[in-house]
Amino acid sequence: MTEPELDNPKQLVASYFAEDTESVARNLLGALLLRRINEQWIGGRIVETEAYLHEHDLASHSARGKGNSNAAMFAEPGTIYVYPIHAKVCFNVVTQPENVGAAVLVRALEPIWGIDVMETHRGLTTPTRLTSGPAMLCQALAIDRSFNGRHFTDEPRLMLCQNHVSTEFDIVASPRIGISKSVDLPLRFFIKDNRFVSRRK
DNA sequence: AAAAAGATGTGCT
DNA sequence: GCACATCTTTTTC
User: Fold this and answer.
1) What Gene Ontology molecular-function terms does this entry list (predicted)?
2) Strand, coil or helix: what is A134?
3) What is the structure's pLDDT at A7?
4) Nearest nucleotide by C1' position to the A61 CA atom
């Protein structure tokens, strides 16, 4: 796919993220996540997300309240929350009104633009290993902790857009991946039958 | 069987 | 506050 669609991007507005987290997680499926690097947009379509709530969600980083490391999660909706894990990072967008402490984790992309650049960043060329995991997609898009706390509407290095090409798909909900608390809540959402979703058999 | 990924955890400047 | 180690699960060979 070429880039004509990016000539007229419909960037998501901040109010898009102010509603309840589960809805935002569902709505983000199919949206485009783009990273500006070397005067080129690289990225693709979001195919898998997870919702992290505040109240009663012990798996969420916000469950114990606001602290130094998770302060971005309590900022205004549309703020980027990047947290470190195992020498890598994962990418979230804050939802709900300010001070709630909820966010959507972007878990997988369908790579579309700048695949060669993403292959270089990842050090491999297997398509389904490029961005099919929260830490993988951050490495592919060169997202690091310098993005933490930035608002995506004020961040020229990133763009979140509505996808006006392919919007027809079924959404599947399942329990979230890799957590030890609140394990049964069906807060993981992905595009049915998409080959770039993580943890497929 | 071996490698990779990951809502961790520790430790130091 | 930031860098990085480490162990379990999942995926690939």
Assistant:
1) alkylbase DNA N-glycosylase activity; DNA binding
2) helix
3) 60
4) B7
List helix spans (H) across chain A.
Answer: 21-28, 115-122, 134-140
- Within a domain: A196: no
CA gyration radius, chain A: 16
Structure tokens at A133: 């995991």
The pLDDT, as a whole number, for residue A5 is: 58
Q: Are A82 and A138 in contact (CB under 8 A)?
A: yes
Q: Which nucleotide is nearest to A105 (CA to C1')?
A: B7
The domain containing residue A15 runs over which residues?
4-191
Q: How many domains does chain A have?
A: 1
| Nucleotides in chain C with any atom closer than 7 Å to protein CB | 1-7, 10-12
Work out if A186's Cβ lies within 7 angstroms of strand C: no
Percent of residues, chain A, with pLDDT higher than 90: 80
| pLDDT tens per residue, range A37-63 | 999 999 999 999 999 998 889 999 998
Exposed / middle / buried, residue A179 (Cβ in 10 Å: 0-12, 13-18, 19+): middle
Higher-scoring residue by pLDDT: A2, A65: A65
- pLDDT tens profile A1-11: 555 456 666 89
